[in-house]
Amino acid sequence: MIESTPPGTRFPLGSGRDPDIGINSLQNYELTPNPHFSLLVRESPDGTKHVELVLEKILDREKQINHHLILTAVDGGDPVRSGTAQIKITVTDANDNPPVFTKEVYNVRLMENLPEGSLAFQVKATDNDEGKNAEITYSFSDITDSARQLFNLDPSTGDVKVTGPLDYEERRYYEASVEGKDGGGLTAHAKVHIDIVDVNDNAPTLSILPILNPIPEDSVPSTVVAVINVRDRDSGENGEVSCNMGENLPFRLETSSENTYKLITASALDREKISAYNITLVLAKALDREQAAFHELVLKASDGGDPARTGTARIRVMVVDANDNSPVFSQAEYTVRVPENVSMGSTLVTVMAADADEGLNGHVKYS
């Protein structure tokens, strides 16, 4: 019997035979007491008694697959004689159970560097039916196009794999609905919440806004040369950026606001010692053009990840000349011996003065 058989359905069982006659012949039937079945006895015009099995209560294969009953035929003699037959009932499956997911909501956390092709998570549903009625096919019933490009659901196993690059900085959260359908068409649904977890996959970036470049060499200390903005697309400690200062050169870094710094002079500049600075690391010393032609500096930003990532930027600072150097003669005193009959217009002596400044500031006139 299929488990969906409605109560009241009758199943003929035939009839017993008794060679005796009268009261000694077959008089009645009896059935093992049970909640699901009863007997209905019918008597034909010739006096033969036929018996039918009547379903009293709906069957449930998932609770009991087999029912074993004993049918007894009794006569009216003294002593009473009886005969028995076994009734073996197998309950076959009807698709009366929908699939049931193991969770109503699947909360999933995925690292953003999870490689493509990796198993992200698995959804699972069970069905108490059997055969095709218990075979479940999985599919996304509600999912955005962006999420569909990143996740693939295996219809047979419920495995969800990553099929595209996850990026916390692009999107931190996805939501989808999953459907499980059995072979008889019954369905179940579950929600999936996917949180993308940040990893330290972005190096800090630096942008520089020149304020005073070239900078006059007579600029006072703490003159702002440039404003530096530091950004990191990661979050938490991975996005906490610190910008540090090097040594041995006349710049220092001063915090202006969160992630913003000012590059300022730390002491007086001297174009005649150093006329240009290529900065890639922030340093804090006086500029001196006369000590070197230029200095290589590195501006470096580091985040708080493990391992930390760093970003660099370059800025070239030119020092503009100021007339801060006087001409210097090659000798402090020139002594010349001149004969008294020297001709007019004759060169008596050549004097030489040099000026460390440049351009007009370094052009020397004599008088």
Automatic annotation (TrEMBL):
Going by the UniProt record, its keywords in alphabetical order are: Calcium, Cell adhesion, Glycoprotein, Membrane, Repeat, Transmembrane, Transmembrane helix
Claim: Transferase is one of the keywords in the record: no
User: How is it placed in the membrane, per its record?
Assistant: Single-pass membrane protein
Question: What top-level branch of life does the organism fall under?
Answer: Eukaryota
- Where, per UniProt, does this protein localize? Membrane
Query: Which intervals hold domain Cadherin?
Result: 3-101, 102-206, 215-329, 330-367
Question: Which Pfam families does the entry mention?
Answer: Cadherin
Molecular function GO terms recorded: calcium ion binding
Primary subcellular site in the record, as a coarse category: membrane
User: Known InterPro entries for this protein?
Assistant: Cadherin-like_dom (IPR002126), Cadherin-like_sf (IPR015919), Cadherin_CS (IPR020894), Protocadherin/Cadherin-CA (IPR050174)
Q: Name one GO biological process term.
A: homophilic cell adhesion via plasma membrane adhesion molecules
GO cellular component terms, A-Z: plasma membrane
Name recorded for this polypeptide: PCDGD protein
